[in-house]
Amino acid sequence: MAQPSSHVTAPLKDELDIVIPTIRNLDFLEQWRPFFQPYHLIIVQDGDPSKNILVPDGFDCELYNRNDVNRVLGPKSSCISFKDSACRCFGFLVSKKKYIFTIDDDCFVGKNPSGKEINALAQHIQNLLTPSTPFFFNTLYDPFREGVDFVRGYPFSLRGGVPTAISHGLWLNIPDYDAPTQLVKPLERNTRYVDAVLTIPKGTLFPMCGMNLAFDRELIGPAMYFGLMGDGQPIGRYDDMWAGWCAKNLTAISCANSHLIDKIEETETHDGIQWQGEQSIREFEEGIQGHILAGRHHPILPICCPSKRCTTLQQCYLELSKLVKEKLSPVDPYFNKLGDAMVTWIEAWDLLNSPAQEAAAPVDGVKKN
Question: Distances from the Cα of 24 to the Cαs of 19, 47, 102, 176, 266, in angstroms?
């Protein structure tokens, strides 16, 4: 069995799962071995379930494919996207840990300006365990960071902050552009290293990306549904942003944002498509459609306030699903399907996370270690 290349501490080792959607062998884990090996991995295989996905030796992980999704969820499997990285939501469902870190299979370890490798996961954990300040902006950014404090004029009554639900990471190299922007800037790369953590204010939306993301599953889990996209849908590549908009609207708990990893194009050793590089015509068309629809539905989301009769996040999310169908289906009939899928997602969440299910035998995939 392979061993970690260097010893690292593993905070929240028994409280955090790493969820990875993939269509290929997970060779990229070798770079992350020093940071990921202590943790349990949930791998959600997209595409052809008969394809054998290879995982490097020494990782504690379980793998689920589409057959497993259908087996576990039955008719409710319709809410899990196919041929889209939103399939990772299934990993959110079957995990029983308090925290989730999810990463794409073409993300590699970044380095700071001094050349030291960045432990992205450790920074996410630090974010999640540190309060956020969504109601009053601190002009020195993160007041909880070592060597920093609240500035003059910051209300003492707000300095305790609130629990952090989402830690959203950024990356180097390929920018996360929409399809039209990427088309006119195909060679642009991000080389600017940013070392900052700040809270996204309450009531402010942001374009969340799922490829380098951690969240508190107990606080925000039911709202982390990446939408119904990909195969059979007119829209793709907006699954993670949809989850971000919904989550940000349904809770006052804020997000921490830090620059963590290096996003690199796939090399010739992979048979897949370069990340946001050589997109297929289908991916490009879905991306443009998503960009158009996103621009038209933004006005509804910021004004969505759950009614006082909602006492759980699930109830709030179901109320949002009704608004999606009522207000957005005139924009495009796709939103009727999305609204229905949101309801099915909550049903699936409650099915796998009910007290009875917690007491029953766990849902298992193929063990790999």
Answer: 15, 10, 16, 21, 11
Entry pTM: 0.87
Which of 203, 208, 222, 243 has its CA nearest to residue 317? 222
- What is the per-residue pLDDT across 244-271, written as a single tens digit (0 to 9) for each? 988 888 764 334 544 444 433 322 222 2
| Amino acid letter, residue 340 | D
Burial of 149 (0-12, 13-18, 19+ CB in 10 A): exposed
More confident residue, 20 or 10: 20
Q: Is the pLDDT of residue 281 over 60?
A: no
Report helix angle 334-352 to 66-73, nearest 10.
70
Q: Answer yes or no: is pLDDT of 157 > 90.
A: yes
Rounded to the nearest 10 degrees, the angle between the axes of helix 334-352 and helix 281-297 is: 90
Contact by Cβ (8 Å): 29, 109? no
**Residues 349-355: contacts with CB under 8 Å, at least 24 apart:** 349/93, 349/221, 349/222, 349/314, 350/314, 351/73, 351/76, 352/72, 352/93, 352/94, 353/93, 353/221
Structure tokens at 346: 């909550």
Please state, in angstroms and rounded to a whole number, the distance separating the CA atoms of residues 38 and 15: 12
